[in-house]
Amino acid sequence: MICQECQVRPATLHFTKIVNGEKNEFHICETCAREKGELIPGTSGGFSIHSLLSGLMDFDSSSKGQLAGQCSEDVHCEECGMTYTQFRKLGRFGCSSCYKTFDNQLDPLFKRVHGSTSHAGKLPKRSGVKVKIKRQMSDLKQELKERIAEEEFEEAAHLRDEIRELEKQISQES
Amino acid sequence: MPNLRFTEKPLSDWMQKGGEYSDVVISSRVRIARNLIHHPFPILANMEQAQDVRNQLTEVLSNQALQDLGPFEPLLLDELEDVDRQVLMEKHLISPNLLNDSKSGAVLLTDDESVSIMVNEEDHLRIQCLYPGFQLQEAWERATQIDDAFEEVVDFAFDDRRGYLTSCPTNVGTGLRVSVMLHLPALAIMNQVGRVLSAVSQVGLAVRGLYGEGSEAIGNIFQISNQITLGLAEEEIIDNLHSVVLQLIEYEQHARSRLLSESKLRVTDRIMRSYGILSYSTMMDSKEAFQRISDVRLGVDLGLIDKASVTQMNELTIMTQPGFLQKTFGVKMGSGESDMYRAQLIRNTLSNVNVQD
């Protein structure tokens, strides 16, 4: 059987398409199938985990309305030049700075994929020291706010000193 | 001149060792994804940038800590023949992705091939440890030590909140993928494999075929791995997989003992038929080969056949694949021809009775 599209090569793909209840049979060759953008089973291309991910990222523009979607698409990463549209299409980041650039869009994505938005595992030994201190500092700052709100100034002053001490450590580290 | 030793033997040394529950768990694997800061990820890197990353990562191999954990020998993908690259993939030392899509890709291997570190795959660095049998904890400990040793000399992309930054959002956080390769023939014979595995996917684990993402389950071999990498500590991820796999082992062992008690004659017949077909066929496609090898392997595990060994079956699983066939016979072959060569190789292997274990 000859391909019904190009009438030259032998038809190697045979399939039935049902669109809106209308049934059509196709007998075409692989080249024409690719040109027509048919999904060929058993070949890569067509479908991957990354195309699935871009599906997961689409929802934020639909739920927050057109405007939010448009704004975020204009953002591009200063370091590697990747735009949000590209990121959505590829399903992959271009460099580590992309995480900061697209930060606003990432929480819903990570929630869907991992059920969580922040890391709870291993810290790198060298740069991790700073991260540990930072984690400690943000805890202390939170407590400081609470103390001030409750007008426990003596406690608050104590906390402020602790935070200053940690700040010193950080500047020594770097 | 790249070292060709890695593509000449079918079985890596680590595979010869056995390990816990090795009748069901063929191997345990831990993979950690890491990236360097201030370098674009491989997906966007140009030739020069990719080369730069590869140079940096191969240079640090001389570092003492990495020497102690290795030593590692770098193989640059662009210096290898097509067939050698194919063989590395068939031995699970590199991924199909590194084989097909990488720019300036490389793999850093230890002598026994239990550690393979891919450079410029989807991420700059993918540290992979493979252990025989059920040894997730051991594999993790080795991988994390290697991670630390790299971190002594290079700066990894790490974010306070998001953890280790990876190219694909599905790996962010720990960058950790742990997986086990399971042989579940008894569950397959009893038609329970679908039910069991769909339960596995409901607890957040992924089930795949022999060659990972997108590959089909052949020869009753299944890969189970974690999906979630963010929000859990590494130990939790490993524990989760560990406990699910323990259950699967129990199911499979239960199914095996039921096979023995309820239909020993029928199972023995199936195993001996497969052994006969492997021993005398003149043409065999890879799908049938996998299935027959699986049957014989089950026979060895159940003590129903003494003419073959598990090592032999492991060897055949690797050797009957296209790259290795081509390597063994030294000819390029079409699919009809490879069926003939495959059958020949299996006949030869089985007639050289060399049962060691």
From TrEMBL, chain A:
Gene3D superfamilies registered for this protein in UniProt: UVR domain
In what residue span(s) does the UVR domain sit?
134-169
Question: Keywords in UniProt for this one?
Answer: Coiled coil, Kinase, Transferase
Please cite one Gene Ontology biological process associated with this protein.
stress response to copper ion
Note the coiled coil stretches, chain numbering: 130-169
SUPFAM superfamilies named in the record: C-terminal UvrC-binding domain of UvrB (SSF46600)
Q: Name one GO molecular function term.
A: kinase activity
Q: Which Pfam families match?
A: UVR (PF02151)
Q: What is this protein called?
A: Protein-arginine kinase activator protein
From TrEMBL, chain B:
| Pfam families reported for this sequence | ATP-gua_Ptrans
Q: What is the enzyme's main class?
A: transferase
Reactions catalysed, semicolon-separated, are:
L-arginyl-[protein] + ATP = N(omega)-phospho-L-arginyl-[protein] + ADP + H(+)
Identify the EC number(s). Answer: 2.7.14.1
Question: Which sites bind ATP?
Answer: 27-31, 92, 126, 177-181, 208-213
Gene Ontology biological-process entries: phosphocreatine biosynthetic process
**Location of the Phosphagen kinase C-terminal domain:** 24-255
Q: Which GO terms describe its cellular component?
A: extracellular space
Q: Which UniProt keywords apply?
A: ATP-binding, Kinase, Nucleotide-binding, Transferase
Which Gene Ontology molecular function entries are recorded, alphabetically?
Answer: ATP binding; creatine kinase activity; protein arginine kinase activity
- CDD domains xref list: bacterial_phosphagen_kinase (cd07930)
Family to which the UniProt record says this protein belongs:
Belongs to the ATP:guanido phosphotransferase family.
Q: Main role?
A: Catalyzes the specific phosphorylation of arginine residues in proteins.
Name of the protein in question: Protein-arginine kinase
Q: Which gene encodes it?
A: mcsB
